[in-house]
Amino acid sequence: MDFEIRNLAARDVAPMCRIISKIGLSEFKDAIPPETINSVFKENGDEEGDEAVAVGISVVVSVADIVFRNVDKVEKDLFAWLASVSGLTPEEVSSLSLADFATLIGAVFKSEDFKDFFTAVRALL
Asked: In the predicted model, what is the mean pLDDT of residues 69-95?
């Protein structure tokens, strides 16, 4: 299925926070220690070559794993938010094949806007 991820915006913060809070922030904290995040980004936020890419992929896989393990807790919120960023309807998101659903989640998590959001949040901590 074809979809295009729109740029994330301030309106995405509330649904993202709702999803994260239903899953449990500690799930993310425990799966992705600060030193892992710090190894991806320098002080100025730039990526650090091949090692950063490998760690970044590890972070994406960890986040995806957390979401997949908790999808039952956040299904409606997740489908609605993924629909809003992909141009699909929540019903279309819920009907995606498992491969397409994983591709959609990966596309969102790998987007520059998603990375920028978590870099900014990290700077606040």
From this structure: 93
Tokens describing residue 100: 């397409």
- What are phi and psi for residue 2, nearest 5 degrees? -90, 135
Which DSSP string do the residues of 13-75 spell out, in sequence order? HHHHHHHHHHH-HHHHHHHS-HHHHHHHB-TTS-B-HHHHHHHHHHHHHHHHHHHHHTHHHHH
How many CB atoms sit inside 10 A of residue 87's CB? 12
Rounded to whole angstroms, the Cα distance separating 87 from 65 reads 24
Closest CA to 15 of 83, 88, 72: 83
CA-closest candidate to residue 38, choices 114, 106, 117, 123: 123
pLDDT per residue over 90-117, tens digit each? Answer: 999 999 999 999 899 889 888 888 878 7
| 9: Cβ contacts below 8 Å, ≥ 6 apart | none
* End-to-end CA, the chain: 38
Output phi, psi for 72, to 5 deg.
-65, -30
DSSP secondary structure string for all residues of 81-96: HHHHHHT--HHHHHTS
